[in-house]
Amino acid sequence: MSPPLPEDTRRLRRSRKGRLAGGICRGLSLHLGVNVWLVRALFAIFTWVGGLGVLAYAAFWIFVPLGDVPEEERSAPRSQVRLVLLGLAALGLLLLFGVPTAHPTDWRTILPLAAVALGLAVLWRQADDAQRAGEGLRTRTRSTTHLARAGLGAAVAIGGMIALADGSNSWAETGRTLLAALALLVGAGLIGLPFFLRILRDLAHERTERARSQERAEVAAMMHDSVLHTLTLIQRHHEDPAQVARLARAQERELREWLYGARADRLRRAQQGVDGTEHAAVESFAEAIRAAAAEVEDRHGARLDVVSVGDAPLDPQLGACVAAAREAMVNAAKYAPEAPISVYAELADDRVEVFVKDRGPGFDPDAVAPDRMGVRESILGRMRRHGGQAEIRTAPGEGTEVRLTAKRVPQPSVGGASNGNDVNEERSTGAERTVVES
Amino acid sequence: MAAAAAASAATARPIRVVLVDDHKLFRTGVRAELDEAAHGTVEIVGEAADAPTAVAVIVERRPDVVLLDVHLPGGGGVEVLRQCLLTGGGPGKAADTRFLALSVSDAAEDVIGVIRAGARGYVTKSISGTDLVDALKRVAENDAVFSPKLAGFVLDAFSGAAPATTAPAASVDEELDRLTAREREVLRLIARGYAYKEIARELVISVKTVETHVSSVLRKLQLSNRYELSRWANDRRL
């Protein structure tokens, strides 16, 4: 019925061993870490104060289960508790001898005292239960039950106190009652404080735990959706090294973006995903360059290292630059796929520059077949039309570097949709040109 | 004659390297790659998998170069650098050991952080064996090693300041906050993927001059108290 006990809970039990009657004093002494004779003396003293001791003993007997108290649940000797109990004993003795008018058989005294004792017993049990079922607190129903029980205990105790105060009519009686009430409050506080501290600690712990598990879920989702997926694909394609390299590189890029990439980008991308309008939003220049490189990597299985300095939203001129750079990247990936290809894009206020350098075999520019000039022209022509120029530097055995430069013309920034059209139009015209580079 | 002999003896002596990385698999890989590419010019004299062990090994072995991972249990590469180089404000226990940061991360925060803590260079783990040996040699000779990414970061971080060529800098602090036109040119070529030799040919200067420029940029990067630098690196992450 009750949830499994956490490791460290100590639970009040009536001790099966070393008992005189119900094992209550022994159990309490083990639970509180005080001498058993002090507890016994306390019950004995309070038996003469309106029979309170007997009533409390009866209440404990009814509510507290009998059992063995294991070694690890015993408290080390605690001096504060002993002090409190000694104080209670002194109070009892004071009540017993200092106020002789209190008649043990006066029901008007006994009944309220019994109520107080009962309330205290309930409170005690309640605190103990809460400690035991630390995780039970999470569910709302359980915690409300606890609260109700604590409230009931407090109500009974307070009711008893009020009855005590009502039943007395002399100043001595009132003084005695107030003293008793004070003792009760102190006792209740001592009982309740650890309980409330425990609740606070449990709640804080639970909150951090929840945050952590949320984070873990996010990472797990990423791992599951993409990394595991890629690993599966890699295993399936293990006989095709090119495909494996491509998959691994794409996954690396994605993971890197996720780990180190701009958070704002991620958010924006997520929103685009929801809208389903991936290319409608205004991309930035550096993003577009990176996207172009990623696309070339995926398609041609080469590795491109992109470094970018400066950034701005795309406009037609920058769009043309990106398109020309993509052509250069495709060329490099086709003819020099082994070593990494360096892409460097720098955007300043007054100019834009993109460099694509490969470490391939290079070639003799004068001996190039005319059909490849078309591709080159698609780079050159595109740059020229947007106020820039393209230069190809190569020599056999030295790799190839394509340099794209343009003076920045202030242009209204437009969305990527029209830019996409521009790129398409350029692609078709570029292919037709066969102009020889100057 | 004697000096020449000493110099050749110095170059013949293998570079003593300590490898600090928390992935055993990666350490093994680097070891194999160095064995293959270095032809006996690099000797690995110690390994460590976390920051406290790394500090102990470095102090004990006194290597020429430490290949240092940025992310380590026990404080990370920055903590290792702090304890080895800056103990008690002055030169620390391993003042004549050089550090080369090696990481998979190319987050600006990590790169700038480890350089500011005193590393002489930063390369990513995708580097080839031959390039790694070159980088080790360069760092052992107290030169700086910049990856294209790091060069890009520096250009980006210092882009707010005008080149310091036209007017002489008003103070040392101000000089530290700016790159000269030549330094900028060298960094741009590194970012474009040029090797030092290619840079020297492109700018018609000697390789040694290229190294001097890069070391000078490294000094500025480490000493400049431009608060924008830290802020810039942090902003890259947001």
Helix and strand arrangement:
The complex is a heterodimer of chains A (438) and B (238).
Chain A: E1 14-15, H1 24-32, H2 36-47, H3 52-63, E2 66-67, H4 79-98, H5 107-132, H6 140-167, H7 171-236, H8 241-260, H9 263-275, H10 285-300, E3 304-309, H11 316-335, E4 341-347, E5 351-358, H12 370-385, E6 388-394, E7 400-407, H13 416-432
Parallel strand pairs in A: 1-2, 3-4
Antiparallel strand pairs in A: 4-5, 5-7, 6-7
Helix pairs in contact in A: 1-2, 2-3, 2-4, 3-5, 4-7, 5-6, 5-7, 6-7, 7-8, 8-10, 10-11, 11-12, 11-13, 12-13
Chain B: H1 2-12, E1 15-20, H2 24-38, E2 42-48, H3 51-61, E3 65-69, H4 76-85, E4 98-103, H5 108-116, E5 121-124, H6 129-140, E6 145-146, H7 148-157, H8 172-176, H9 181-191, H10 196-203, H11 207-223, H12 227-235
Helix pairs in contact in B: 2-6, 3-4, 5-12, 7-9, 9-11, 10-11
Description:
The complex is a heterodimer of chains A (438) and B (238). By secondary structure, chain A is α/β, with parallel strands linked by helices. Chain A contains 13 helices and 7 strands. In chain A, the strands form 2 sheets. Chain A has a 5-stranded mixed sheet with strand order 3-4-5-7-6, with helices on one face. In chain A, strands 1-2 form a two-stranded parallel ribbon. The longest helix of chain A is centred in the middle third of the chain and has 66 residues. The N terminus and C terminus of chain A are likely disordered. In chain B, β5, α6 and β6 form a beta-alpha-beta unit. The longest helix of chain B is centred in the last third of the chain and has 17 residues. In chain B, α5 runs antiparallel to α12. Chain B has 12 helices and 6 strands. Chain B is an alpha/beta fold and 238 residues long. The chains are: A alpha/beta (438), B alpha/beta (238). Chains A and B meet through α8, β3 and β4 of A and α7 of B.
